[in-house]
Design a protein that fits this description.
The structure is a homodimer. By secondary structure, chain A is of the alpha/beta class. In chain A, 38% of the residues lie in helices and 18% in strands. In chain A, the strands form 2 sheets. A 9-stranded mixed beta sheet of chain A has the order 3-2-4-7-1-8-11-10-9, with helices on both faces. In chain A, strands 5-6 form a two-stranded antiparallel sheet. In chain A, α1 packs across α3 (62-70), α4 (85-98) crosses α14 and α8 packs across α11 (280-289). The longest helix of chain A is centred in the N-terminal third of the chain and has 16 residues, at 21-36. Chain A is globular, with a radius of gyration of 19 Å.
């Protein structure tokens, strides 16, 4: 597989009170089109990942909305898989290029979350999980806290290791002017912040964010272009209680295995990664499930500093979901954009040196959907 | 393009008070899998078209929900484009097969509409249109009434011609035990039924429906299998007021042109069609936009009887959206299923004789999205 990334565009992530979803779509997509130097008539199809706009703003049919806003006349598709909506939009856009149907495809991930009452957002986000979980009164912090507790009990993972993940991601965000929280925090501040659901604190948790990211995928790959060499999706039970294990995400393991095989690389050849750290424990699981360290050693791996910018495998150089922000439908597209910019050497203060191969992992719910992409230059 | 239809399954359409969306998904998909004689492990991916379940029932992430319910372990995608969600799910499933990524793909269209307050349904459906239209107080009957008025003024189309469309579709539905309204009606009863928005009456309008349909698409096409020979999507402005014409759907014309070219057929070679008659005027426009008659002559064409079961080009043998019912996310998949069954000679009392080539047209909103498929045997 060799699908080129011909252009990228991103908005500021954060509480953008003066911007609508429509504004965010136009800003990110216009930047991506300008970056690609393609004329609009060369865009053959549009995919948009979004979870909540139908529910929160009563606006569905976002494919046609986006083509209308951008004044592009092409087939358009909205893809939804909760927080994995963006990653799945990229995967399906790739399929349409591989099929030979479209040459240049615009993929947008976008979410507007901050103009709505917080109970609507909380309820809306629970749509990513199962009815049984909602009826049991579980929330996403609650579900991930169960995962964290199980990991701590089985492997001795510590709260300090969870905190180290957030500290690293805030450090990276401090070097990213588009990040929602571009400042550093300390281990102590994480441990002392409000408990959400034990063992997770406020600073173990990703925020509510507005933002959009866009990329243009292309059949044509020129020398020096970043390209996607692997794209795989896998699913698991929607209900956490039906999984075989609480301490691994089978869907991530399966998707990673397929993506590594497609890209013909092993975990040890990955130079940097963007992973789905909706809560700090999720990044620790990702380290294990993606094969970067052994099962049970994710906490130590993060604590060792290997995944910091100057380490051997920088993870979430954007700041991750934790500190760059998590506009749910945008996240999967933003991850690809971050890796693409890194591989091209355009990441400024947070540039990873000599990176040639990058990976993204985007998760829906508590791991019912996982999508892994591998990028090369 | 040659994508086989390896199996189909459908539920009863109607007010199914005792069935949840989950029940409908399982029933239609299980029937399709049984019909295909494939084991579940041979299903490589799942696509589901649905518009409203996130909004009405707070359940998103329907791809993973469906794989969980069906106990199938495969990549899963929810596609949404208002009432064209089902047709777009089929189009994207085809892309994934053409890409070489998946061999056998289960496509489900499903919608549960009748267990919710009618104001929530009305508001929800307006998510298919533009914010300007909602703010202007327009509803979908209102928008289609504007289209009907314009067509009547420009071409002399009559209320009786609109009514003839509904009468024909109810006649077809009277031969379909899965239809929501399996009984005949008269021209007089349409004209005398409650006015919704002049010139459209209650019996010019498709109903609120629960239902699901599923098909299995396959790379492998055996002799005697029905296959998809053309699949094309096109978009237009979301806002009706920004269209070049009120009396044509440009997106349908564009999608049809591409699909005819892919399938190497002309409109005159189509033996039967399922079109998007959300209101009677929409079927009249479809006749023109698909090239079955000249612009402006759709009313006369329907009135002539040519599109009745015994006519030269039977249209909406299922009963159409009007009388078979319109569970919005299911409609695009049901249309393909109806044509596939007809081409295989399995349509019983409503069988079209010697049909070899069929067409489906599925519309989102007032024509911001249109998707056309052409099937052959």
């Amino acid at each position: 597989m060799k699908i080129g990334i011909a252009g990228v565009g991103i908005t500021k992530f954060g509480e953008l009170w003066d911007k609508s979803l429509e504004d965010l779509i136009v800003e990110a997509a216009t930047k991506a089109i300008e970056d690609s130097k393609l004329t609009k008539s060369k865009i053959d199809a549009l995919f948009i990942g979004n979870m909540l706009y139908g529910k929160l703003a009563n606006q569905d049919h976002l494919g046609a909305l986006a083509t209308s806003l951008l004044k592009i006349n092409c087939p358009a598709f909205r893809i939804e898989a909760a927080c994995a909506s963006g990653g799945l939009a990229v995967h399906l856009a790739i399929q349409s290029i591989l099929a030979g149907s479209y040459e240049n495809v615009l993929v947008i991930g976008a979410e507007k979350m901050t103009d709505y009452p917080s109970n609507e957002i909380s309820l809306g986000l629970m749509g990513a999980g199962s009815e049984e979980e909602r009826q049991a009164g579980l929330t996403f912090p609650g579900l991930y806290a169960l995962i964290a507790k199980a990991h701590m009990q089985k492997y001795g993972t510590t709260k300090k290791q969870l905190a180290a993940t957030a500290v690293k991601n805030h450090y990276h965000a401090s070097l990213n002017s588009n990040a929602q929280y571009p400042f550093e925090i300390s281990i102590e501040s994480v441990l002392k912040s409000s408990s959400i659901v034990d063992p997770l604190t406020l600073l173990d948790s990703s925020p509510i964010t507005d933002g959009a990211a866009a990329i243009i995928l292309s059949k044509n790959v020129k020398k020096g272009d970043v390209y996607i060499a692997g794209s795989a999706v896998s699913t698991d039970s929607l209900n956490l209680s039906e999984r075989q294990s609480l301490t691994q995400m089978q869907a991530t393991q399966d998707a990673a295995k397929k993506a590594y095989s497609q890209a013909k690389v092993t975990p040890s050849e990955i130079d940097l990664a963007e992973v789905h750290d909706c809560f700090t424990i999720a990044e620790i699981l990702a380290m294990e499930d993606l094969g970067f360290c052994k099962q049970g050693e994710g906490g130590k791996f993060v604590e060792s500093g290997k995944t910091r910018l100057e380490g051997s495998l920088p993870v979430n150089t954007s700041g991750g979901l934790k500190a760059c922000g998590h506009p749910v439908g945008a996240t999967g597209v933003k991850q690809i954009l971050e890796i693409a910019q890194q591989l091209k050497g355009l990441s400024g203060k947070r540039q990873v040196k000599k990176a040639k191969v990058g990976l993204t992992q985007n998760v829906g719910g508590t791991g019912a959907t996982s999508v892994v992409h591998i990028l090369k230059i």
